Amino acid sequence: TTVNLSVCASEFPYSFDGHIFTAPGSVTDTVTASVGCDTIRTINVTELPLLTTTVNLSVCASEFPYSFDGHIFTSPGSVTDTVTASVGCDTIRTITVAELPLLTTTVNIAVCANEFPCSFDGNVFTAPGSLTGTVASTTGGCDTLRTINVTELPLLTTTVNLSVCASEFPYSFD
Fold this sequence. Notes:
Structural class: mainly beta
Shape: rod-shaped
Largest sheet: 3 strands, mixed
Helix content: under 10%
Strand content: over 45%
Radius of gyration: 40 Å
């Protein structure tokens, strides 16, 4: 008689009916009968390959450290693990995490000198300067790194030269 067994690669060494297989192969033995003739038996063990899968993830730079299925990524990279199957062979899984850069934008605002303090999007400027902050995405994408630059426009000056007759005093100018 012949017994054919297919064994997942991760199950070696594999034991069957008193025989230990450390790799695929065959063994022939004799099965003693309690009544009648003994049986010569051949046991053939073949190896089923481990399944493989790749998980590719793209993560916004501001989301690190990033956790996926029990693995914590503090920066872009890859990890390989084994996912144990409840039925069938285990799966060798490679998880690769790539980093999506933060989006950047610059807002330039020119303010007249007499308009300080001024406010932009909840930020108060009492003098010219710059402020950099993160603006959360409203679309589900990556956050935006925004720089607000406030510069001061000088007050305009003008000179008015008037000629007034002495008899017009006191004189009023609008």
